[in-house]
Structures
1.
Amino acid sequence: MADPIGDYIAGLFAREDDVLLALREEADRHGLPPISISPDEGRLLQVLLAAVGARRVLEVGTLGGYSAIWMARALPDDGFLVTIELDPGHASFARRFIARARLDAKVDIRVGRALDVLASLDGEQFDAMFIDADKEPLSTYLEWGLRLVRRGGLIVADNALWGGKVLDERIEDDATRAIRAFNVRLAADPRLVSIVVPTHDGVAVAVVR
Ligand code: SAH
Ligand code: DHB
Ligand code: MG
């Protein structure tokens, strides 16, 4: 769909370099699902990470490493990103492109189920968490976010609008229900200051008070 306003914003603020372009092309050929964040979301993540002075970032759902590269590029020299991925094939694809972006020293891919890896991180503190994996466990991912993210840090989640399904009352599958409940919780939880930003599929942004 033509989106001249979106193109104007992305053209000015969210240009992809050769690594990100090559990643998306090769991901298509490789059969990875085309569900990475968009360039404007990548840039929004960079702005948010800069705003909270993020040094330690946690991602749930690596896929091909596209969002990981955007985020790692916003971190200072001593910053790092831990990113969790269930599928070893996705993880090895991501590892290759993260190396190509010369970010391998900053990005640590943990292969496993998010719920298991999150439990293994208990006691650590992050400045931001980006949630972008399966939707059914969103409320548990949020609980982990509240435990692992410092005060003043960020909890961000992709797909907050789920192609519009969150507002279609006829739709009642588990993923849609989970995203709806997540948004309701984010809007109401007094420990959070939150909003959904209407990017292509919606990004929920919450600051931990
Ligand atoms: N953040 C990525 C896109 C992630 S797509 C980007 O924007 O580039 C969602 C990813 O989450 C997929 O790679 C999928 O394999 C992974 N995933 C799904 N369920 C998971 C789980 N329970 N634990 C860890 N990763 C999971
Ligand atoms: C889908 C898209 C996503 O961005 C995601 O994180 C998980 C699933 C999807 O469209 O199925
Ligand atoms: Mg997503």
Note: DSSP finds eight helices and seven strands in the chain.
2.
Amino acid sequence: MKSKKLVALGLAAAMCVSLAACGGSGSSSGKSSSGSATASSGNVANKDKPVVWFNRQPSNSSTGELDSNALHFNDNTYYVGFDANQGAELQGTMIADYIKAHKDEIDRNGDGVIGYVLAIGDIGHNDSIARTRGVRKALGTAVKDGDNIDYQAIGTNTDGSSKDVQDGSIDGVDLKIRELASQEMKNSAGATWDAATAGNAIQSWSSSFGDQIDIVVSNNDGMGMSMFNAWSKAQKVPTFGYDANSDAVAAIAEGYGGTISQHADVQAYLTLRVLRNALDGVDVMTGISKADDQGNVLEEGKDYRYDEKNRSFYALNLAVTADNYKDFTDSTKVYEPVSKQLNSDKKKVWLDIYNASDNFLGSTYQPLLEKYDDLMNLDVDYIGGDGQTESNITNRLGNPNQYDAFAINMVKTDNAASYTSLLQ
Ligand code: BGC
């Protein structure tokens, strides 16, 4: 037994040398592989192996148009994400409801204007765009750009003169609502959704117009928590994020206003389950809309919805506020209806996370994937990117022959071909 493993390890080392496939910077871990690098079973061509895109849907980052070629790369290609519009609307409503419930004390400086600042994750990412629009719509600050709501960052707008937003209002509240400032949180190296950048932004916003800020809003919890810790917690200014990461949920007890769960437990399950089903040659809906032999099953319409045309699974979102946060304290807990062990054979999967330091993917999504990979007998190599360039990740897919299936999280939604070209 022992000597067999050593042979396998020796082979793996030889492969690394001859294929130059194992270099590259950034992190990579084969958590469940215990160092084995068994070649994939069978002789399926790489172009026919199952592929799942997740978290960043192949699409044009300027127009939002879906990349149909990537979504239909082969018969076993899917996308797994969550319903961005439903979640965005929920985030907007959660904030509007908070304002209604606190209308008598929310205007801290009594100037008749409820001022908010907004941290934007990535101006070319459909989830980020939807959240910016959802908040502006619910608070009445949205303006139209053609048929759609303008989602641009406005810089500062303390005097209300911006053309990309307007002063808004909500029913039953006799105060104006103004987006005082918004900014895409991109660091100088190009990484988006950058928490440290958001922390710096709130420092500079608060030092020039802090008394006007009554609410802090963020496209995600990573940036939201950075702003909360840097400023709003001490000022007791309600801060709203998205993702229901465990630290953000815990902060609700300390004044964080609320967050949205994008049901990462369902998404992580679906990400691996569509691959498992394809590898087992069973109906893609096994363990999803139809119970598998172990009884794993999700509820369509409650847990997720499926768009057949775009082969996309979308988990449904839930609001997490002071009323219910105790039910969400562990964001990495597997979802009970799909928590039963499968007994299919081991298969090897290559999976990348676009940015190893992304808060949501690192603290919520990957820990969930690591639990489900055991339940589904998948030996997954996790590759962590730098969040800046696709090549930092694709350089580490030197030998696709080694894998049975691929799970891909792109840096930029336009770049699907950087990955599929390696499988052609
Ligand atoms: C999450 C963000 C995350 C981004 C990465 C979004 O769905 O809400 O927190 O940074 O995905 O692509």
Note: Residues 55-56, 121, 127, 193, 220, 222, 242-243, 358, 360-361 surround beta-D-glucopyranose (CB under 6 Å).
3.
Amino acid sequence: MNRHIAPSILAADFTRLGEAVATINNSKASWLHCDIMDGVFVPNVSFGMPVLEAVHNISTKPLDVHLMIVEPERYIDRFCALGADVLTLHQEASRHLHRAVHQIKENGVKAGISLNPATPVSTLADIVQDLDLVLIMSVNPGFGGQKFIERSYQRIAELKELIEKTHSKALIEVDGGVNLENAASLFAAGADVLVAGTSVFHTSDPAYTIEQLLKA
Ligand code: DX5
Ligand code: ZN
């Protein structure tokens, strides 16, 4: 089983964004997670295209772009062109998921779908085979630093079952409230990729914390 950590740049000190990206470049992180929020799909606004482009210019890690925006179809081609390696949109935000997923793939980018905590895993039954990744939100999206929702473990197990049953190659990513206390249980439950913001960037040595999360 492969374990991956995708630090969320949302928790970095934005006055020293370049240093934060360099720290991740020199770490064992697999991807750099970038949260795009529009203030409509979620009650918060994060950063947008110019910042993402700047991060892309200096990141040596693949960019894992998590779109928390309404009507994400409108921006798929632009986010792909800006350098997303994985582009994830929300099941709850898109009326035509199948079309959106294939639009992402036509750009040569890995396609992911994210589920809010109250959205049944079973809603992915007819699309999971086409996906490269499923992102289970383990907090309500919109903010870093929130408390992990325990029910997420069952959702990961359910998703793993669905992936195995359908012979899907999708990776399971978990996002929100991930830390050194729950990382081992999340990997054991079936997670392939853990997103970690606060628990990585709000420590004195983020690269060391990433190693600890991997070894958890
Ligand atoms: C929440 C974002 C997360 C967030 C994770 O809406 O999607 O990626 O940055 O932050 P922590 O790890 O602090 O919960
Ligand atoms: Zn995220």
Note: The beta strands are 4-7, 32-37, 63-68, 84-90, 110-115, 133-137, 171-175, 193-196.
4.
Amino acid sequence: MNTNRLSANVEKALSDQMNKEIHASHIFLSYGIWADDKGYQGIANFLYRHAQEERNHSIKFMEYILNRGGKPKVGVIPAPPADPKTLTDCFKGVFKHEVDNTTAIYKIVDLSMAEKDWATWNFMQWFVQEQIEEETLAHNLIDKLKIAGGDRATDESLFTLDKTLQEAPNDVPLAQEATGNNP
Ligand code: FEO
């Protein structure tokens, strides 16, 4: 008896998205490392937190596929893009990657609708909502940097921006709080 409640197409689309979320996680991790190296520890932590959220999204896809009787497949994760050149570049990159991800999420919503797979359609609504929040977060970053003076911002205003992001609430533990027992 076939207990897989996902069609082959939907299963593959969800599995690909599981991998895409890890790719997004790696992109934000690499941006975070870039910011950390430049001395922007608050911005780096913000990006590390975001990388962790993307990983959580990947696990959400993994669990859903398994719960529906499918088997997710971990694939090759492409390397993250080159380091940003400036903070504006970095924040625009964050926004662009969120929009790319939204496009991929909408494709799965379309597919689930075409196949009348209402369970998957319903599952995907969480991600539709999440992407609204993440895109808002990303363009707020661009706005904050613009107010600080963009690429011509003074060291003092960048210091304040960095500090603000360091103090932003955590949905996930900060990198600095990780320990061997609580990685
Ligand atoms: Fe998992 Fe930023 O979307």
Note: The chain has a mean pLDDT of 91.
